[in-house]
Amino acid sequence: MDRCMIAVFVLHLQAMKKKIALVTGGFTGESVISLKSAAVVEKNLDHARYDIFKILVYPGNWYHETSNGDKIPVDLNDFSILLGGERIKFDGIFNILHGSPGEDGKLAGYFDMLGIPYTTCDALTSAITMNKGYTKAIVQDIPELHVAKSMQLFGKQVGQAEKILKNLKLPLFVKPNNGGSSIGMSKVKEASALQEALDKAFHEDSQVLVEEFVSGREFSIGVYKAKGSITVLPATEIISSKEFFDFEAKYVPGVTEEITPGRMSGEEVARVNRIIEKIYQKLNCKGSVRVDYFLEHGSGNFYFIEINTVPGQTETSLITQQVKATGMAIRDFYTLLIEEMLGTGK
């Protein structure tokens, strides 16, 4: 093959490569985790198959940063960038933006209007699942799934603590109804600590979910759709030295022991997988999501905690551990997600 033919072949390959925007950053405190996730994803994506452009999204400042540090603004009219005189438009979005606007449906709605596919759930599912109370209301009638007794609060009001204590039993979990990484969450053992926990949660969100504590073993499990079928990954059992799986337990090394695959009987694995697949279907999920749950001490009942539709993808994240436990390379996992998004993975 002469040089001319080689050059033509290389140009043909470049033309075939899909342009993928790796979207990260965000409007909340979770942006720090989003950047860490994006670094891992960028390193592990198949660069022979895709041209990857990392796009950072901050309030009033959306840009692509080049290798020499130049910040190229995103044209929000069509989500494109002008690079080296060439207008770059994207074939798809790998969304790794935790919190708002990447996980709450805002970014999904924007991409829907532009007709650009993305790896995560659609706008409606993203908006609903960001609200813990609404999500529980939707999934609670799934066979074999249980939810803790709870109250959803809409704004701070006088006498809330007293009303909660009349309707729910201590200990209680108090958490912002929207949000992630356990920011603003508290475990309340004594009635005297309830108001402080409510204030902390309301500082993060105008809606707060208060639910009774379920004594059980805690697990987190990933699930994704690729090649037209839903695959449930091995669950991770979470044993925290903290009162619960809070921000420190999630992100500070050594605070939590994570066992993948988690210690479950054959019956428990089969039951959990049935429930998880139904959750994924009922919420109309897309791409990769992660579900947190308890297996109650004594009864072994499955208690739904919450769903994360843009799960972390750092080197030590739970999804990463679970994919590796199946023997699959992370690069191949990401390729499956992208091909499913593009409609070429059938």
TrEMBL record:
BP terms from Gene Ontology: cell wall organization; peptidoglycan biosynthetic process; regulation of cell shape
Location of the active site: 30, 181, 317
Binding note for cofactor: Binds 2 magnesium or manganese ions per subunit.
Taxonomic superkingdom: Bacteria
Subcellular localization(s) per the UniProt record: Cytoplasm
Enzyme Commission code: 6.3.2.4
UniProt: Mg(2+) 1 binding residues: 292, 306
Gene Ontology annotations for the cellular component aspect, listed alphabetically: cytoplasm
Single GO term (MF): D-alanine-D-alanine ligase activity
Record pathway: Cell wall biogenesis; peptidoglycan biosynthesis
Predominant subcellular localization, coarse grouping: cytoplasm
Nuclease in keyword set: no
UniProt keyword ATP-binding, yes or no: yes
HAMAP family, alphabetized: Dala_Dala_lig
Protein name: D-alanine--D-alanine ligase
Organism of derivation: Mariniradius saccharolyticus AK6
